[in-house]
């Protein structure tokens, strides 16, 4: 099924999450019953303080974290009820992009991208990285699209963080997913690279008509690039609207009291004092 067929045909929404809850074995209630419907291809940013439950929410959608209760329907199919085999098949329909890229370091860029097709080819062919010509063509086209034309033979461990994340995005798109989940994809990147990656994700959501949910700490980036923002607090959704509706009052609801209108304190922006270790390195250089 294509990413748009469900909603476009007037059928089930692309994604319908209802009453999603998670209590970790420690007793920590990380999600307290979350409802989200995505009925068109859009970039949805999930923001909130550390520990608000953003990562748990994203990971419960593809059951990297097992929900304690609730329902996740992808184009009408209940993900929570699936057995192991069904879940494996469903996960092929959901691309995941991680903060730490999760590439196979010793493999080439091309092999990493093609690994997005693992599970579609026979086991032996997969193990030998033998893929049909159309997959290889698609991988080259994706590498070109994410700005890595000519990098196919490079080893993953020779890439910068931004380049690795581009490989992660290309690998996820090789699955031709119906939904993209991005768990803090810019957290390890510098501000400029973060913006470039967010811009790329936004463009890809539109081009491929695939909705994406992104867990992100940077409110300015979320505002600039997301169509819709979900604000979480203590495992609950306290804000869910288009990005332009994210007012200071909404930020206070999500993060607590703060004067959002004044620039950051100078102290906040001052470079950190050198640690003993960096001071020693400085002294040696
Ligand atoms: N495996 C786990 N076992 C027990 N508690 C957990 C586990 N993972 C997360 N938690 C707790 O669940 C709550 C929500 O965590 P989660 O990682 O989803 O928050 P988050 O909003 O993504 O935070 P951050 O922005 O810091 O990544 C936190 O209190 C966290 O300590």
Task: Please describe the topology of this protein.
Blueprint: H1 5-8, E1 15-23, E2 29-38, E3 43-48, H2 54-61, E4 69-74, E5 77-78, H3 84-92, E6 94-98, H4 109-114, H5 123-127, H6 133-145, H7 161-174, E7 179-183, H8 191-208, E8 212-215, H9 219-225, E9 228-233, E10 236-242, H10 248-255, H11 266-269, H12 276-284
Parallel strand pairs: 3-8, 3-9, 6-7, 7-8
Antiparallel strand pairs: 1-2, 1-4, 4-5, 9-10
Helix pairs in contact: 6-7, 7-8
Bound molecules: adenosine-5'-triphosphate (ATP).
Could you give a short description of this structure?
The chain is α/β, with parallel strands linked by helices and 285 residues long. It is built from twelve helices and ten strands.
Structural class: alpha/beta
| Tally of helical runs | 12
Distance between the termini: 59 Å
Q: Could you give the order of strands across the largest sheet? A: 6-7-8-3-9-10
What would you call the shape? globular
Q: Which spans have pLDDT < 50 for at least 5 consecutive residues? A: 1-9, 266-285
How much is the average pLDDT? 86
Identify the quaternary structure here: single chain
CATH superfamily: P-loop containing nucleotide triphosphate hydrolases
Query: What would you report as the Rg, rounded to the nearest angstrom?
Result: 20 Å
CATH architecture classification name: 3-Layer(aba) Sandwich
The small-molecule ligands in this entry are:
adenosine-5'-triphosphate
CATH class categorisation = Alpha Beta
Strand residue percentage: 15-25%
InterPro entries: AAA+_ATPase, ABC_transporter-like_ATP-bd, ABC_transporter-like_CS, ABC_transpr_PhnC, MetN_ABC_transporter-like, P-loop_NTPase
GO molecular function: ATP binding
Keywords: ATP-binding, Cell membrane, Membrane, Nucleotide-binding, Translocase, Transport
Family: Belongs to the ABC transporter superfamily.
